[in-house]
Structure formats: structure tokens, C-alpha cells
Amino acid sequence: MDLQKNFVDSVNLFFKEKGKEWLDSLPELISYCEEKWSLSMRDPYTLSVNYVAPAIKEDGTEVVVKICIPGEGFLDELEALRLFKDQGMASLLDYDQEKGIFILEKLSPGHTLAEISDHAEACRCAAHVMSNIIVPAPSETRLPTTKGREENLRRTFNQNPNGFGPFSKETLEKALNVFTYLNQTIEKYWLLHGDFHHYNILASEGDWLAIDPKGVVGEIEYDLIQYMLNRLPDHNVYDVTKTRVDVFTEELNLNKERLILYGYCHTVLSTTWTVDVDGSYEGNFHQFVAIFEKMYASTFGKSIEDRLLEDEF
Ligand SMILES: Nc1ncnc2c1ncn2[C@@H]1O[C@H](COP(=O)(O)OP(=O)(O)O)[C@@H](O)[C@H]1O
Ligand SMILES: [Mg+2]
Q1: Phi (first) and psi of residue 57, to 5 degrees
Q2: Which Pfam families match (predicted)?
Q3: How far is CA 299 from CA 245, 256, 304, 310, in A?
């Protein structure tokens, strides 16, 4: 079977031996889907670590088949898709938990929000989508939380007390304090998309709908950071990020200070996720640490350090 090279590389990188076995079993899984749901699968979309392809059912209905490696990620996405049912998101039509398969409503025309080149306009469309997927967090859930993200950064700091990747001890400590402050002062918990960005927002009959929720529990302000890290311009990243922060906070009536602080601590965390054994890391994420720090100072007239001193932790 001829598979996209980036897809094969990513699956092998993330899932190692399990990924290789899964790739080998893909032809079988595709036949399984075609038989179980009486459909015919077409060529896949551009893939990352899941096999996603349009398909046509015997009665002519178009659907999308998403085949994932079964496990935690699949179960989180399943719970999120169910909780977001009828909420500005492509519908889940059926699934197979054991084999890690979703059958989804096919969105049409289905191009992504990345096709809108004006950053402010794209952001207003994204804000509209976000306003349609605002759902309170369920009281009991298996989904990860922003507290878990803080703990993840704490573990990295404890294991690397003198610094990690591009970060000094002081920066890790500061980001951790910001995360702690934010988690301790959450007033209301929401179900978050968990991977809200241009490539997971698709055009659907004159509107925009979300796909691919990972499911996280926390504040809406946190859910918007992933968007900021995508579809970057070659120049003026600061200005585009500022526009995005302004549009989101205005359109969705959000707390700008919390959004920028989440931006700061989350981009430290997501940079730590990319640090390789040779010490290299994702520069695209890293640049945002300074961007959010600068934006905080210019918006609030004080540094994040000064802000932290105002509250006791
Ligand atoms: N419901 C859908 N309708 C139309 N296209 C879809 C749908 N779901 C996914 N796609 C296409 O498949 C691509 C990958 O799907 P996605 O669920 O985002 O997978 P991944 O989790 O690997 O990012 C999307 O970027 C989009 O182009
Ligand atoms: Mg996606």
C-alpha cells in the first residue's frame, strides 16, 4: 500500500513498534470498514498520525472514516465527540472502539480555515466556531485537565532542576508559578476542544465547523493558545498574535490577562515537549514565550514576575 511519507514517519516516531504493526494492518482495517459499513473508501486526506479518508456508502451518502491507533487518545476523542454532539462540530455517526475507528459526517466543501489569508477575518470565523462549541465540563470525565498540564511541566522541572532545552531554571519556575496561579483561580470549568486551530476548522455549507477534538477540561482562554501557534506569517508574528488575542477576547468576551498568561505557560510547556536528546527544540513554539511575555508587559504595564508577586502561592 502506498502511504504518505510524512504520515509513515510520524506514526513510527510517535508509536514506535506499535505504530509499525498498525501501519502494516491498514489494508486489513480498510477492508474491515468497507465491509462493516458497506462503503467504498477513497484516497486519504493529508495525514498526520491517523488514517482519514472520505468514503461513499452504498446508498450514496458521503462520510469520513478516521482510523486511529486504539487507546487513550481514541477514547478521549470519542468522549469529546459525544459531549460536543450538535455543538458546531462534525457529527459522529458510528464508531468501533476495539479497532479505533470513527465514522463521521463529511463536511462539504471541507477546506480548512487556513485558506483565509486575512488573519483578523480568519480569527473572527474561528471565534464564531468557538462560540458554538462552548460546553460546560462534565462532572465526571476521563479527559485530561489543565491541572494535568501543570503537573506535566512540574515533572519536567523536577527532573531537570537546572533547566531544560532552551529554558533556564528561572523560566521553568516562572512558567510553573503562572500555571499554578491560573489553575488555582479557575472560576468555571469548560469542556475544551484541545486542538483548536485552522486545520481542524472546516468549511461546511456556508458556515465553519470544528473537527478532531482531543478533549481537555479547563478555561476557554487556554483552548485558544493552540490557534496562535498555527498558520504563522513569515514576518510580524508579534503583530499577528496581538491581533488574534484582541479578536478572540473581544468576540468571545474573554479575560485578556488570563489568555496571555496561558499563552506564556503553555508555550513553555509545548516547547519542552519538543526537546530532543541532542538539545534541539521547536523554535516556532519557543518564540511565543517571549511574545506573550512582551505582550503582557505592554498590555498591563508590568512584567509577569511583578504580577506573580501580587498574589501569594
Ligand atoms: N468530517 C470531515 N469532513 C471533511 N473532511 C474531514 C473531516 N474530518 C477530517 N477531514 C479531513 O481530514 C484531515 C485529517 O483529519 P483529522 O480528524 O484532523 O485528523 P488528525 O487527528 O490526524 O489531525 C482534516 O484536516 C480534513 O482535511
Ligand atoms: Mg487534525
Answers
A1: -80, 165
A2: APH_6_hur
A3: 11, 9, 11, 17
Distance 48 CA to ligand 2 centre (A): 8
Residue 57's H or E segment, with its range, is strand 51-57
**Number of the ligand closest to the Cα of 226:** 2
**Nearest-CA residue for atom 27 of ligand 1:** 45
Yes or no: say if 311 and 181 are a contact pair by the CB < 8 Å rule: yes
Residue 113 CA: distances (Å) to CA of 50, 125, 207: 20, 8, 11
Q: Distance (Å, rounded) from C-alpha 205 to C-alpha 217? A: 30
Write down the pLDDT at residue 1. Answer: 87
* Distance of alpha carbon 262 from the chain centroid: 14
Q: Contact, 179 vs 84, CB < 8 A?
A: no
Tens digit of pLDDT for each residue in 159-209? Answer: 999 999 999 999 999 999 999 999 999 999 999 999 999 999 999 999 999
Q: How far apart are CA 17 and CA 9, in angstroms?
A: 12
Cβ atoms of residues 135 and 220 within 8 Å: no
- Map out the domains of the chain with their CATH numbers: 5-106 (3.30.200.20), 115-310 (3.90.1200.10)
CB-based neighbours (< 5 A) of ligand 2, an ion = 200, 212
Low-confidence ranges of the chain (pLDDT < 70): 312-313
